[in-house]
Amino acid sequence: MNELLKGRGAQTSVSNDFLSEEVVTEHIEGLDEELLIEKPKTSLFYESPNKVVNKVTSPDVGMEYSLNPYQGCEHGCIYCYARKTHEYWGFNLGLDFETKIVVKNNAPSLLEKHLLQASWKVKPIVLSGNTDCYQPTEKKLKITRALLEVFAKYRHPVGIITKNTLLLRDIALLRDLASEGLVKVILSVTTLDEKLRQIMEPRTASISKKLTAIEKLTNVGVPVHIMNAPIIPSINHHEIPRIIKAVADHGALSVGYTTVRLNGKIADIFEGWLNRFFPERAQKVLNQIKELHGGKVNDSEFGRRMHGDGNIAETIQQLHHMAKRRYLRNRQSPEWNLSAFRKGGNYTLFT
User: Fold this and answer.
1) What is the pLDDT of residues 302-333, one digit of tens each?
2) Gap between the Cα atoms of 93 and 243, Å rounded
3) How far apart are the C-alpha atoms of 308 and 253, rounded to whole Å?
4) Contact at 8 Å (CB) between 189 and 226?
5) Fewer CB within 10 Å of terminal CB in the chain, N or C?
6) Helix (H, G, I), strand (E, B), or coil: what is residue 213?
7) Overall pTM surpassing 0.85 (yes/no)
8) Where are the alpha helices (DSSP H) in the chain?
């Protein structure tokens, strides 16, 4: 077995279906000169897009508009559906996805330009929806923080989806937005098992830090919702009740879930991960994922793809609903405030 690349989810690179030619190292014995193969380091690639606010056309993702300041994600979650999108940049969805990060430095100015359009009608814009807006490189680049400053300036509603507690750095901004019903945080909690987290989503925040973040945000009035996702049969599905109890105890208002689906070559790296860490049940897990999706590991049909179908899907759904009724009864999310928006700006938090 090859040496484990610590801090990385994928352990290999895989071919990009959009490229006709690639340099590979699978057959080193055929090369004239020895290649120096080192553990991959994170590299940043800068893009200058013309717009950053995206209309979401998928009817089952729970958002109308999204904004992704980064493409690719250092968190390295082995199951991540966004891996597939990295191929459009000429990279692969294995190690490239978590080591070659595309950065949109001009995202804050483009957001401001978007909000100033005469035709713009206020709708919550969600950070990120694809890759994490608080992934590790945000600590240095602070693009997400700059985006929040724009939202605060114009009193515009914003949602945040993240697996990282770096968002606590911006708690003053979040508290200010929350004071007028302008922000909701969705924190992803996949497991309470720290050993599983370290191999399944290696650069995300620990569960103890996530629970602390839920409590701190709740205490300053920021509404926190949880995505218990993805649910993977025979890996983390049995944790559903305990996860919902834990996040409820720390102040979460609601919990949603999705089941795992493996589009394209994500299935290949996920199967490699299973064989490395769970060889005794790898085939069982894959078969159960297929049972969720009509005999395949992926499903693209809207409405069905998120939760799956069949006996296993029903069991997961029952566990989820029973725990919600027990631990989250009578909790409600505040309504979005769409009336505070000021096109002229109204930014007084730090002045």
Assistant:
1) 878 899 999 999 999 999 999 999 999 999 99
2) 29
3) 25
4) yes
5) C
6) helix
7) yes
8) 95-99, 107-115, 138-141, 143-154, 171-178, 194-200, 207-219, 240-249, 266-277, 282-292, 311-327
